[in-house]
Write a structure and sequence with these properties.
Number of helices of chain B: 22
Strand order of the largest sheet of chain B: 1-2-3-4-5-6-7-11-10
CATH class of the largest domain in chain A: Mainly Alpha
Largest sheet of chain A: 5 strands, mixed
Largest interface: A-B, 80 and 88 residues
Structural class of chain B: alpha+beta
CATH topology of the largest domain in chain A: Hypothetical Oxidoreductase Yiak, Chain: A, domain 1
Distance between the termini of chain A: 29 Å
Oligomer: heterodimer
Shape of chain A: elongated
Helix content of chain A: 25-40%
Low-confidence stretches of chain A: 1-6, 234-239
CATH architecture of the largest domain in chain A: Orthogonal Bundle
Structural class of chain A: alpha+beta
Strand content of chain A: 15-25%
Helix content of chain B: 40-55%
C-alpha cells in the first residue's frame, strides 16, 4: 500500500494519464496520437526523466515539426530512423513498434535514431515495450540514439504495474497547478450548455422552465441560472 | 447431458469461444442493450450474494449526530480476513447548492470506503479533504469517496411518522423506493484512491464494481440508521424504529446520464466481459438436461410468477421503455408456453434433452425485447453457482496493446469481419454528425450538445464508426503485406484506432453498434444497459432520452440478516406487501 503525506504526495495512474492527455488536447495534439504520447509522458514522469516538473516545457515543444513524417531505412544490422526533428514522445511508440515488428519477423531488432528533439526522453521506450513482454536498451553515441530490443531472462514487474502500486511522486502544488491547467481542455460552463444534460428544461437564455424529474422540488434551481457556477470543492472547508 | 462443472464453478462453456452465443448483430444494438434486465450477475445482486455466502458483518461503531443531522458516524465491516471502515460526515440539509447533478455543491452526507480500521487521524484528514473534491486527497487505503442526498419529501414523511410513533405509509415507501440517493461515487485512482488493478489477488472487492456496490449498500444502511436516530432525537420515547419489512423495501436511489457513455467507450473490455459472462451463463442454463428432472423448469416458472407480480404492482411511469403492465402481460403469455413445455417434458412428449434451447429460440421475434431479456435474466438463476463463479472473473485489464507486426491486409480483414455494422452506416449526412460529446469545466459534468454550439476542440466522444471507415480507406491504398508498424509511420494519426481494433480483436461485445454523434442515437439506451443490466438498478426511469434514474438493493437483506445467516437469496423483485 502506498503512503502519502503532505510531504510525499503522489499521483495515481488514472490521474496522471488524465492530466497529461487533457494537456495534450489543450495543445492541439491530434486525438489519434494522444494515448501513445500520454504514456510517453507518463513514463517520463515515473522514470524520473523530465517528469511532471518539466511537463509544460515538453508540451510546448511537442507541436514542433509534428507534421513531418519519420523516415525509415534498412541497414545490415537493423534500422535507421530519422525522426525529422520531432519530439521524442511523438516517435517513442513508432520506434517501439519497429523493434517489435523486426523481432517478430526475426530481423535485427536494433534501431539508430537521429534528428530527435529531447533524445534523453527516448528512455521511455524501455517502459513502452514492456507491454509486448520485451525490454529495450537505450544508449547514446554522439547524435545517434541506439536502441536495441532485449529479452528478459525472467519476468520483471512492468513500469505500468509499478505505477499502479506505488504511484508517481510529485510536488503537491505542482500537481494541482497541472490539474487545473488541464481543465482548459474542457468546455467552459455556460447557462446554455447546462441544457446539454440533466432533466431540467431551460430556455435559450438559461431560465428554468420545467423538469422531467420527481426530484425537481429538492433542487436548488438557482444553480442552473447563475452566470458562473461555483466549482464543487473550490471553497475549502465548506462544510 | 449435464455440462461438467469443476469445483471452481467454471464449466465446459468456458472452453468455447463466443461463436456459440448470441450474435453481436442482435445484442449490440443500443435498443437491445437497453432491454437487458437486472440479474444475479448484475453487480449489486452479485455483491449481495457474496455478502450472504460469506456472512459479512457490519457494525456501527460511532454515531454522533444531532437532531439537525449534523455529526459523524463510523461503520466497521468484516469479511473473511479483511476489514473495511466506512466513515460518514453528516450535514444539516440545505437547499442552497443542492442538485442531483454533479454540479451541486451541497450534500447531506459524504463518506469514504477505506481498507482496514481507519485511524482517528485519517478520519479527521478525510473530513478535511473530502469537501475539497478535486483539490482534496484521499488517505492511504481509501477505495472510494461518495456523496449522497436525502430524498427530502420521503425522508421527512418517514421521520414525521416514526417520531410520532407510527410506521410510514407503506405505499409511499414502495413507490419511492429509497430515502437516500447517491450523488457521486469515485474511486480507482480519482482523488488519490487506490487503483483497482492493484487490489490483492484475495481482495474481496477485486472484481469490477464490487467496491462501488459496498459503498452504495452502506449508504442504504446509513439511510435507515439516521432515520431511526433522528426519529428518537425528535420523538423521544414516543418514537418507533422503522419496521424491518419496510427497511427491506428501501434501497438507494441512483441517477446517471451521459457519463456512462464515456465509461462504455473507455472500458470496452469490461463491457465485453460482462456481456460475455451473461451470454455464457444464459447458455449454460439453456443447456440444462431436463429429461429426467423438471425441477429447473418449476424453478423458472416460479421466478416468472414472482416477476409478473412485481411488474403488475409496479406503476412507475416509464418514458421511452414499455410500462411494467405490458411486460407482465407478455410474461404471463410466455408463462403459459413454459407450462405447456413442462407438461411435454414431464410426459416424455418433448424429444429434446435440452428443451430450453429451442424454447428460447422460439420466443425471439414473438415477444418484445424487454420481456425476452427478462426471461434471459431469470434463466441465470437456474445456474447460481456457475453465475457466481463467472462474476468473480470480472477482473479486467483495459490496457490497449497493438500488434505492430500484423500485416495491413490482416488488419483490413478484421475490420471487414468485425465492423461491418460501421461500414454500412450513414456517416455523411448532417443528421449523422449533429452532436459532439464534451465535459464542462465545472465538475467535469459530461454533456452532449449540437456541433454548431460547441467548439470541436472540446470533443471527447469516441466516433468509432467514422474512425473505422477512415482507417479502412487508408489501408485500402497500402500494400497489404506491409506491417502495421510501417503503415503507422505514414499515418501516425491512426495509431489509436489501429491499436484499439487490434486489442479488441475477437471480442464480440465490446462496443455498441451505434453512431453516437447522430441525432438518431438515444444516449439513454447505453445508460440503461449500465444502470439496469450491469449495475442492477430496478425501476429504471428514463427522462429526456439521456437520464436514467432507479433504485439499487430494493428488497435486499439487512445487515443483521446477512451476518446471522437468515438472509433470503430470493430477495429481488419483492412483492408489494403493504398494498391497501
Amino acid at each position: 500500500m502506498s503512503e502519502q503525506t503532505e510531504t510525499s504526495f503522489s499521483a495515481s495512474l488514472r490521474e496522471s494519464r488524465m492530466v497529461i492527455e487533457r494537456l495534450l488536447q489543450y495543445k492541439g495534439i491530434p486525438s489519434g496520437r494522444r494515448p501513445s504520447v500520454t504514456d510517453a509522458g507518463l513514463y517520463s514522469a515515473s522514470m524520473g526523466l523530465s517528469g511532471f516538473e518539466r511537463l509544460l516545457e515538453m508540451l510546448d515543444r511537442l507541436p514542433e515539426n509534428i507534421a513531418v513524417t519519420s523516415e525509415l531505412s534498412e541497414t545490415p544490422d537493423g534500422l535507421s530512423f530519422d525522426a525529422g526533428d520531432k519530439h521524442a514522445w511523438l516517435v517513442a511508440e513508432e520506434i517501439t513498434d519497429l523493434l517489435v515488428d523486426n523481432y517478430k519477423r526475426q530481423a535485427p531488432a536494433r534501431i539508430n535514431v537521429v534528428n530527435v528533439t529531447c533524445p534523453a526522453e527516448l528512455q521511455v521506450v524501455k517502459s513502452l515495450i514492456q507491454k509486448h513482454g520485451l525490454g529495450a536498451d537505450v544508449k547514446y553515441a554522439g547524435d545517434v540514439v541506439v536502441i536495441a530490443l532485449t529479452e528478459a531472462d525472467e519476468p520483471v514487474q512492468s513500469e505500468l504495474l509499478r505505477i499502479c502500486h506505488e504511484r508517481i511522486p510529485v510536488d503537491r502544488d505542482l500537481w494541482f497547478a497541472l490539474f487545473h491547467k488541464s481543465n482548459e481542455a474542457l468546455a467552459p460552463d455556460t447557462k446554455a450548455s447546462r441544457m446539454h444534460t440533466g432533466t431540467v428544461i431551460l430556455t435559450e437564455d438559461g431560465k428554468v422552465v420545467g423538469a422531467n424529474d420527481d426530484e425537481f422540488l429538492d433542487m436548488d434551481l438557482s444553480i442552473l441560472e447563475k452566470d458562473i457556477l461555483e466549482e464543487p470543492g473550490m471553497e475549502e472547508g465548506k462544510h | 447431458m449435464h455440462l461438467e462443472r469443476s469445483e471452481s464453478g467454471l464449466g465446459a462453456l468456458d472452453q468455447l469461444d463466443e461463436c456459440g452465443l448470441r450474435s453481436a448483430s442482435i445484442l449490440m444494438k443500443p435498443e437491445r442493450l437497453a432491454a437487458i434486465q437486472p440479474s444475479r450477475i448484475s453487480a449489486s445482486r452479485a455483491f449481495v450474494e457474496q455478502m450472504i455466502k460469506e456472512r459479512w458483518s457490519i457494525t456501527r461503531t460511532r454515531f454522533r449526530i444531532n437532531a439537525n443531522g449534523e455529526g459523524e458516524a463510523l461503520y466497521h465491516i468484516v469479511c473473511g480476513g479483511w476489514e473495511f471502515s466506512f466513515p460518514i460526515y453528516s450535514f444539516k440539509p440545505t437547499t442552497a447548492g443542492r442538485t442531483f447533478r454533479i454540479i451541486g455543491t451541497a450534500w447531506d452526507m459524504m463518506g469514504a470506503l477505506v481498507e482496514g480500521r481507519i485511524s482517528d487521524a485519517d478520519f479527521e484528514t478525510t473530513r478535511q479533504e473530502m469537501p475539497k473534491l478535486y483539490r482534496g486527497r484521499a488517505t492511504p487505503g481509501t477505495l472510494a469517496w461518495f456523496r449522497a442526498n436525502r430524498s427530502a419529501r420521503v425522508f421527512d414523511d418517514c421521520l414525521t411518522s416514526l417520531s410520532g410513533g407510527l410506521q410510514p405509509d407503506a405505499e409511499m415507501l414502495w413507490d419511492a423506493g429509497y430515502t437516500m440517493r447517491n450523488t457521486g461515487l469515485d474511486g480507482n485512482g480519482t482523488f488519490g484512491t487506490k487503483t483497482f488493478v492493484a487490489f490483492e489477488k484475495d481482495h474481496p472487492l477485486r472484481w469490477s464494481l464490487s467496491a462501488q456496490m459496498l459503498a452504495a449498500y452502506m449508504m442504504r444502511v446509513f439511510a435507515t440508521d439516521i432515520l431511526n436516530h433522528l426519529a428518537r432525537e425528535i420523538g423521544g420515547s414516543n418514537a418507533v424504529p422503522l419496521d424491518p419489512e419496510m427497511s427491506r423495501y428501501l434501497g438507494v436511489g441512483n441517477g446517471s446520464a451521459l457519463g456512462l457513455m464515456f465509461f462504455v467507450n473507455n472500458r470496452p473490455k469490461l463491457v465485453n466481459k460482462w456481456l460475455l459472462i451473461r451470454e455464457k451463463t444464459i447458455a449454460q442454463a439453456k443447456m440444462l438436461d431436463l429429461s429426467e428432472n423438471c425441477a429447473p423448469l418449476d424453478r423458472l416458472i416460479g421466478l416468472v410468477d414472482r416477476t409478473i407480480t412485481y411488474r403488475m404492482e409496479d406503476t412507475t411511469p416509464y418514458g421511452r421503455y414499455p410500462p411494467s403492465s405490458d411486460i407482465a402481460a407478455e410474461l404471463a403469455t410466455m408463462r403459459g408456453e413454459l407450462e405447456r413445455l413442462r407438461k411435454q417434458v414431464a410426459s416424455g412428449a418433448n424429444p429434446s434433452r435440452t428443451p430450453l434451447v429451442g424454447f428460447c429460440k422460439s420466443i425471439e421475434g414473438r415477444y418484445g425485447a424487454h420481456a425476452i431479456e427478462t426471461l434471459m435474466s431469470l434463466l441465470i438463476d437456474l445456474v447460481p453457482d456457475y453465475a457466481d463463479a463467472q462474476v468473480k472473473t470480472l477482473v479486467v485489464d483495459e490496457e490497449i496493446t497493438g500488434a505492430p507486426e500484423m500485416s495491413v491486409g490482416h488488419l483490413r480483414d478484421i475490420i471487414h469481419s468485425q465492423y461491418g455494422w460501421a461500414l454500412g452506416m450513414d456517416l455523411s449526412s448532417d443528421a449523422s454528425r449533429r452532436f459532439i460529446w464534451y465535459k464542462s469545466r465545472n465538475a467535469e459534468e459530461p454533456r452532449r450538445g449540437p456541433r454548431a454550439d460547441i467548439d470541436e476542440a472540446y470533443e471527447l466522444g469516441l466516433d468509432l464508426p467514422r474512425l473505422v471507415v477512415a482507417l479502412d480507406a487508408k489501408l485500402a491504398e497500402e500494400d497489404p503485406t506491409i506491417s502495421v508498424a510501417r503503415f503507422l509511420l505514414r499515418h501516425p494519426d491512426s495509431r489509436f484506432i489501429v491499436s484499439r481494433i487490434q486489442s479488441l480483436d475477437g471480442l464480440n461485445y465490446h462496443s455498441p453498434h451505434a453512431n453516437i454523434m447522430s441525432e438518431d442515437f438515444i444516449p439513454a439506451h447505453i445508460t440503461k444497459l449500465l444502470n439496469s443490466g450491469i449495475h442492477g438498478l430496478d425501476k429504471t426511469v428514463d427522462a429526456m432520452d439521456r437520464v436514467i434514474r432507479g433504485v439499487l438493493f430494493q428488497g435486499a437483506p439487512l445487515p443483521e440478516e446477512i451476518a446471522c445467516g437468515t438472509a433470503s437469496a430470493d430477495w429481488a423483485n419483492p412483492p408489494r406487501t403493504g398494498k391497501k
